[in-house]
Fold this protein.
Amino acid sequence: MHSPLRSALLIALAASPLIAQRNAPPPADLIVTHAKIYTVDDNHPFVSAMAVRGGRIQFVGSEREALLLRGPSTKMLDAGGQTIIPGMIDAHAHLFGLGTFLKNIDLTDTRSYDAIVTRVGERLKGIPSGRWVIGRGWDQNKWGDTRFPTHEALSRVSPNNPVVLERIDGHALLVNAAAMRAAGVTAATKDPSGGRIERGANNDPTGVFVDNAMSLIDKVIPPLSHDDMRAATLGAIAESNKYGLVGLHDPGEPRDVLDVFEELAKAGTFTLRVYAMISDDSAAIEHYFQRGPQSALYDGHLWIRSIKLYADGALGSRGAALLDPYADDAKNVGLLKSTPAHLQDVATRALQHGFQVGTHAIGDRGNRVALDAYEAALKAVPTVDHRFRIEHVQILDHADVPRFAQLGVIPSMQAVHQTSDMYWAPTRLGYARTFGAYAWRSLLNTGVIIPNGSDFPVERVNPLYSFHAAVSRQDDNSWPPGGWFPEQKMTREEALKSMTIWPAYAGFMESLTGSLTAGKYADFVILDQDIMTVPESSILGTGVIATYIGGRAVYERKQ
């Protein structure tokens, strides 16, 4: 005969499977096993499995635990021991610029002006007279003669078609005579504020327009149709996914481009998470101020809550604003593209409306002007967690290094710029100033984070070039031995954060993406090498096997 206590125990034991079943979490949509997963989550830094449900990370940890979430319709993905990292986020990349670059003349591999003229001549075959020819990527620093070119050779090969060729950095144009005629530019045309028209004998324009002077040409280039803008954007997205990018911060898009982004995101064809910054256009800024900050629109594919400003130009075209003259141009201290008053005004109004500001600043004077404007704006509108940014931060005066941490300003830098510029930057700056150039470790030591990026199409889309540069400070050929100013290197852990969680934080997205953490978007990349352990010289040989956004593959490498 059973005692009352024994009967109660038997009933409890019989019911326990039902209770366990009732309390079990729902089955996963996807379970990934046999992987080397770097989560960038300090609570679970390195695991072998993860589960995804509803486009979000459901679990990260051991395979034994992950398999408990397997249901009858769960898809299984055996990673075969491959490396998985969070989906990479480029903290400074021009999506629409990449889209147009892919359709126009690519000049990035040219090593002489003659090669450029030849390539333009090839493109002209079959193009009707009068149609504009557009290209990008020339860099006179790669030529035997590093002086700016003049238009004559370009004008001879294309007498009837306007030709506009953007410098690699996006801060200078080389155009032919037909383009200058279309723009009405003559020797009498004055340099606009913040811009410079390169001139020859009799004050005649040579064909090179620097920084704000570019607008003289840009305003007469025929705009793309809406369908062409859509196609360019979709092409750029596909190219980004191919290299493991799940998101990017797009600094400075006009309203018509942002409208295309929204249109594609609403239609479900926008397979990136884009943190878009509004161009410095008063009408566009006022429009978005009235609308208010927009976050995680269309299932987390678009953010519009930041404004892109410009302090100065670029180092390669000597438009970066310096405190002292260029070492190779003693009469030139660069250009301020915006007045300090304008930077301060927009930053102040952005704080009042809940918007972030990211300001392009490359030279030490450009960075100081931007920091001063931010300091004044924050004094006028004291704001906690504003996350103001400076984009590039390539050259800093020693006195300004600690100001980023003191003001709460994020230095958004592109490591790959260092390996592109190191061959000629000391010529521009002089040796002493290079100690404050691309100074990642100096900034990290003050306690700030550094979101990393590529600035594509200025540099290549593949984010691993910036990862490699960050940890090695060497070019593709492992030069120079030991790295250029190696004391400024990042660790691999920092470099991985600089391409995942730090960009997420810089875009107010860290609760949704940037690490493989339960509850966040299931955005991850499968690599064919372990970038955290292979020799530095092997990092750039790493390929992307697949890119997943929201638990769905948006790119898979063909076998």
DSSP finds 20 helices and 24 strands in the chain.
